[in-house]
Amino acid sequence: QVQLAESGGGLVQAGGSLRLSCAASGSINSINDMRWYRQTPGKQRELVASITRGGTTNYADSVEGRFTISRDNAKNTVYLQMNSLKPEDTAVYYCYTIGAMTVYWGQGTQVTVSS
Questions:
Q1: Which residues contact 18 (CB under 8 A, 6 or more apart)?
Q2: Contacts of 4 (CB under 8 A, 6+ apart)
Q3: Terminal Cα-to-Cα distance of the chain (whole angstroms)
Q4: What percent of the residues of the chain are helix, what percent strand, and what percent coil, each to the nearest 5?
Q5: CA nearest neighbour of 99 among 32, 7, 4, 17
Q6: Closest CA to 49 of 98, 82, 72
Q7: 3-class secondary-structure state, position 47
């Protein structure tokens, strides 16, 4: 079992920044990829960014150049630095990982960007 605990969401004005954190605990040796997804009401959850254990990253086109995903393997934590935030970035952000063929999600953290 893996537990994921997110933190760092909140309310910010357009153009501002936030940093999300996701701490993993439990059977963490099975974890490789870690990802951030986001979801708004009535829409499907969308992939925002991903990072492998080795540090290879990928981003959605909508956040490329503004968001940075990173991880600290010693702390079993993944981060999402979000800069130049836009109102359309408003969503619940979820941490995701897969280990031993099981998918794990965090509880989600709300990010609200005001115009």
A1: 8, 9, 10, 12, 82, 85, 111
A2: 22, 23, 24, 95, 96, 97, 104, 105, 106, 107
A3: 40
A4: 5, 60, 35
A5: 32
A6: 82
A7: strand
Token reading at 4: 């994921």
- Residue-level pLDDT, tens digit, the chain, 115 residues: 889 999 999 999 999 999 999 999 887 776 789 999 999 999 999 999 999 988 999 999 999 999 999 999 888 899 999 999 999 999 999 999 988 888 999 999 999 999 9
Q: Are strands 57-59 and 46-51 parallel, antiparallel or unpaired?
A: antiparallel
**C-alpha to C-alpha distance for 59 and 50, rounded to whole angstroms:** 7
What Cα–Cα distance (Å) separates residue 102 from each residue in 1, 42, 89, 99, 107? 9, 26, 28, 5, 16
Strand-strand pairing, 91-99 and 102-105: antiparallel
